[in-house]
Amino acid sequence: MFRISHFMHELAQAEATGAYPAPKRRGGEGGALRPHTGPVVIWNLIRRCNLTCKHCYAFSADHDYPGELSTQQVFDVMDDLHAFKVPALILSGGEPLLRPDIFEVAERAKQLKFYVGLSTNGTLIDEPLARRIHDHGFDYVGISLDGIGATHDKFRRLEGAFDRSLAAVRHLQKLGTKVGLRFTMTELNAFDLPKLLQLMKDEGVDKFYFSHLNYAGRGNIHRGKDARHLATRQALDLLYETAWADAQAGGNHEYVTGNNDADGVYLLQWVEQRLPRWADDVRQRLTAWGGNSSGVNIANIDNVGDVHPDTMWWHYSLGNVKARPFSDIWHDTSDPLMAGLKARPRPVTGRCGACQYFAICGGNTRVRAQQVTGDAWAEDPGCYLTDEEIGVESSDERVETTAFSSKRRVIELVPTDS
Ligand code: SF4
């Protein structure tokens, strides 16, 4: 995840005081979390969903899936995560609110002092359910909106989904629960981004999460509709200017992006153009951030207990929490994917390996490389920066995002010696 507003607030402070602020100590949002060493865990507790969205990485549908963790198994895993000093659990699905014990799970998580987020499509949240969510002390609720009105309904494949999700935002906002809008951009909904940012403002929403398309599940099937590089740059320009205006005005709204760590490099370019005197400071801070952290600071447990480096790797299991503790699986670098993801630098080749900003971006999203080329360490085809910008010789041999083919599923994960 790339926290645009974090950098914009530092820049606003630098402009106001004439000095770039010192780095904050690690301790989580608001510094309220207990000291941690484990990753943030996104936990898909259930795969069932009342929707069948076009870009769903879980291929979810409205039926039960066998082998999901029982309440007791969830509690046992949670104890292990607590001992492993995992700071935050993001409860997700499918639609997590379809899990009958979701509030028991949330209550237990809060007792153990995790930061607890809920990732939901929002369509089921009426006033009473919003009240239950609020009363259980969720720290944050992310609600997906992929456009305005019919655009969203088309993505979500449910007429009226937009109105229901927006109503959920309002119910939760009224109660004082922190809400974020989650938007996944493709070429079919990019035009609605300005309107969604305006909606965020009008509704007084705290956070905007902009997700680039990643190539997993139905998102991989539809990858031919990924936003083209120019549209991506325009979207980032708009997000940066919006976050900068907010920071300058003393606002505390959060603008974050996910699934494309080249956003950090693009921010550096923005700073070089708009606020060049802080470019060196920002470069240092971005290098300390280091880009993609799948398999390091981000982890995923799916509905049946398989552990993955992040939510986009459901086709690759590192082990199952029913058989081994998460903490054990997470440290195990005998797995070639984990070995590569945990290596510094990662064994990334091609255009990303040669990029002058590799230390900032970390080589970006390995799933896209693997899904398109079969090689998890090849260049990320989702990079929207030009050869000139990243300091490599121009070539016509860029990996292009090709339309999905069910025949292509080569798993090549052994790191190279380079
Ligand atoms: S070329 Fe690769 S490493 Fe460089 S910015 Fe793009 S995605 Fe990141």
From TrEMBL:
GO molecular function: 4 iron, 4 sulfur cluster binding; catalytic activity; metal ion binding
CDD domains: Radical_SAM, SPASM_MftC-like
Swiss-Prot/TrEMBL cofactor(s): [4Fe-4S] cluster
Gene3D superfamilies: Aldolase class I
Function: Involved in heme d1 biosynthesis. Radical SAM enzyme that catalyzes the removal of two propionate side chains from the intermediate 12,18-didecarboxysiroheme (DDSH) and may introduce the keto functions on rings A and B, yielding the heme d1 precursor dihydro-heme d1.
Entry's family note: Belongs to the radical SAM superfamily.
Protein's name according to its UniProt entry: Pre-heme d1 synthase
Source organism of the structure: Ottowia beijingensis
